[in-house]
Amino acid sequence: TSNGKEENRDYEMVDTLPLRNVTVVFQGVEGAYSYAAMRAYFPEEIKSYHAETFRNAMEEVVSGRADYAVLPIENSTQGIVTDIYDLLTEYELSIVGEQIIRPEHVLLGLPDAELEDIRQVCSHPQALSQCGKYLESHPDWKKKEMENTAGSAKKIKEDNDKTQAAIASRQAGELYGLKILAENICYNGQNATRFVIVSKKPIYVKDAHKISIFFELHHESGTLYNMLSHIIYNGLNMTKIESRPITGKNWQYRFFVDFEGNLKDSACLLYTSPS
Asked: Catalytic one among 193, 214, 256, 272?
């Protein structure tokens, strides 16, 4: 993935991204799906640590304390992670790669817990929603939203209350010594989450095949059509479009577009030049 979101930035083409002996930050804790995405994308020779929030992770990269951040941007079941889209417009970071993870949600409890003991289930809101049909079969269970799935597993361990369970990954269960109380609890077997790798350096690999941009337009008839017409006339394949409201401007929106291409392609030069 290459990202053309800032004006007047000079993007450097590289043969491969520098991925070894770098520092990587991810949101959440060890055992979270962001951690799994990081392990899948990067080789073993890295230093890594976690940040509490998406904003904290981005600030670590902006400050130079981390070379990359791994952040979830879209789920195939629940759609976009709106906070990430909004933060990408605030921080001068470039999307340099992506990693898709298929979350395998399980219900985790203390080693001595059984299903009939459970009274409350903790997890990230998206995980609770993705397992909604399973949770509906237990209407007496209370649902508690957490910052991330692995954090909910950590809470179960720390609270030491066998009436509580967490929806998280198998790896989180192993990490915190929890017992799997139920498997296959996500109703969508094709459920997948896309993570982006962001960097302070405006670089892209020479064989990158996707460009992500965002733009704002005057609230006038035909402005979006005129913008998107450039994609048609240049024979580009648009793979995604999203909109987010602009803070302080009622009923005005910022648009996010993904399309196939590379920054070195002549058909894509329009999108990375000053407006």
From this structure: 193
